[in-house]
Specification:
Two copies of one chain form a homodimer.
Chain A lengths: L1 H25 L2 H8 L10 H13 L14 E4 L13 H13 L12 H5 L3 H4 L3 H13 L2 E2 H14 L15 H12 L3 E9 H12 L6 E11 L6 E10 L6 H8 L6 E4 L5 H8 L6 E8 L6 E2 L10 H4 L7 E4 H4 L9
Parallel strand pairs in A: 1-3, 1-6, 3-4, 6-7, 7-9
Antiparallel strand pairs in A: 2-5, 4-5, 7-8
């Protein structure tokens, strides 16, 4: 009996140990946690959040009609007003203004010459009275005539020091927390996430990996022509004062095709500048998802949509039902705007 | 004593069981297999193979001076003559020739008009007597005036049916087995592998993922301008008969910058057309690796290097020592050329 009892204890103990082996080796503990936890905690419960989760859940289920093969899980997002804020002025314009001021001592002629004079005197209205030509001039002065490494350094330094006029935060802190969660959620489900922005491709690449987890080779944007200068030591790429590609409006699908070579299945934007890529996405065959971030929160962020201007959302609102685009209402759908919000 | 002995057996058994837990859960069995197995079996033992393995091994060891952070592990490869064969003619030229013949019934005027007449009569010499202009004309006739989907379909159909004049194999079977292993080896060590080729970006993307495991968004090549046509149902991208970017020679670093936004740490090429990107890679700071595939095997493949022509390797051989480029001798370094070789 004693021996019997011992064998029993022995067997029970061994079973317990093997149970530990089984549990610790074969059960995907982390997966269970992921399924049970909320992938989009800054999104309020409701139709918007549910439609995103429904689409993504179906897209990874090979038995579902909404399944999307892994190789086709391409998601594209505009940047200004979609992943980070863009008011009162697009952030890259603050970079240009600050750089003009920083570079002014080396350019004494700027003091008396528009649009530089206006920028240096804080009179943006006069500076930009010259319209697109004036804007191009200050853009090229700060984005050309240097190596790509030198340009990267100027962006990095600016990002570490400059702050937003309203929040006092660094610009790369003013990213939308709910969109960060959406990017993570998509990537956790096998999606490759791309930025497709009218902003400068070289400007965004400097900080996008840290801010969004999007590496430089998944950033698509506007660009200058460039030159590989083999006379430099070491040979380097020089940014030229010539426009190469304006990644906006109907050109966004072309930027997508040039860089990705596939029609996206998931796209997010916030203005009519994104209409082209929303259309390109949503008119493809098979499951597609398009969302517009609608700036409805004048207290926590900014309110703007149909009024004419840089970030107008008019045609997109009109055609949302037709193309089954989700209109994300920032005020009611998001319980948090920025990561630093409480 | 008996109880003591039993406790001892008990302890030993438990230790053994816990050792099993430890081994099965914590030891990366698959990693051990990887380390013990040869990642480059089609490469003969020797200095070339060893230098690649040494570089990669150091690059993933954070305690080594040759360490490369994960985010910087960018590897770029030319395609024609580097990843697949390019003789007697570049394979994309066979596509053009075959497409001209297939499209001829819809273009009765081609029968009497060069360069089309020469192509249709099998007289390539006369067809291409018009030089670059003639080549551009047949390239545009087969690469423009259709949607990207229609173009993809034409490449896919051609690849499934056309065969190489010497081997009788499909062109996508004529990839270099040792380079496939190198691509896999780099990816297994955290490298992102890109194609950087003078070939057509849309042409390569159709078959590169299956042939090399390189997805469309990691393919860089030459391109036409394009147009997003919203009048089509569904809206689609049309390839225009206008050249956009010639991804060759000193433009290769620009293609790399535009698509990747980082200086590569590992680059492979086979001709002076790759010299620019080899230079761009090897003159960066920190660990860098450049290799030239040297076509030295006239029996199993083709012998060519310094003679003037499309795939000339002259300057690259001259400067290999200066930039520490590995010259891969196909004849002695590779025990297998194509996957179908025995």
């Amino acid at each position: 009996m004693k021996g019997m009892k011992r064998r029993n204890i022995f067997t029970i103990l061994l079973s317990a140990v093997f149970a530990v082996i089984f549990t610790s080796c074969n059960q995907p503990q982390s997966k269970i946690t992921t399924i049970e936890s909320d992938p989009l905690p800054s999104w309020n419960e409701g139709a918007s959040k549910q439609s995103i989760i429904d689409f993504v859940t179906k897209s990874v289920d090979s038995t579902n009609a909404g399944f999307v093969p892994l190789a086709d899980r391409i998601a594209c997002f505009d940047n200004d007003g979609t992943l980070w804020a863009e008011k009162p002025l697009p952030f890259q314009l603050y970079f240009i203004i600050d750089r003009i001021k920083a570079m002014a001592p080396q350019h004494p002629g700027w003091k008396t010459k528009q649009p530089f004079k206006g920028i240096l005197e804080g009179d943006l209205k006069t500076a930009l009275a010259g319209g697109e030509k004036a804007l191009l001039e200050i853009a090229m002065a700060t984005h050309a005539g240097m190596t790509t490494d030198e340009f990267d350094k100027s962006v990095k330094e600016w990002m570490a020091t400059a702050t937003h006029p309203k929040t006092g935060k660094h610009y790369n802190e003013m990213v939308y927390q709910p969109m960060l969660e959406l990017l993570d959620y998509l990537r956790a489900n096998g999606y490759k996430t791309f930025i497709v922005s009218g902003g400068g491709i070289d400007f965004m690449r400097v900080w996008a990996e840290k801010a969004y987890g999007i590496p430089p080779y998944h950033v698509i944007g506007s660009s200058n022509n460039a030159k590989f200068d083999t006379t430099l030591r070491p040979p380097a790429i020089i940014k030229l004062a010539e426009f190469n590609f304006n990644d906006d409006k109907l050109a966004k699908p072309l930027g997508i095709h040039q860089h990705i070579g596939k029609r996206p299945v998931f796209t997010g934007g916030n203005s009519d500048g994104d209409y082209g890529m929303m259309l390109y996405t949503s008119t493809g065959t098979g499951p597609r998802f398009g969302l517009y971030v609608h700036h409805t929160d004048s207290l926590r962020e900014y309110f703007y949509d149909r009024e004419p201007g840089l970030a107008r959302l008019n045609k997109g609102l009109d055609d949302a039902a037709k193309y089954h685009w989700l209109i994300v209402d920032m005020k009611t759908d998001w319980n948090k705007i920025y990561p630093f919000d409480k």
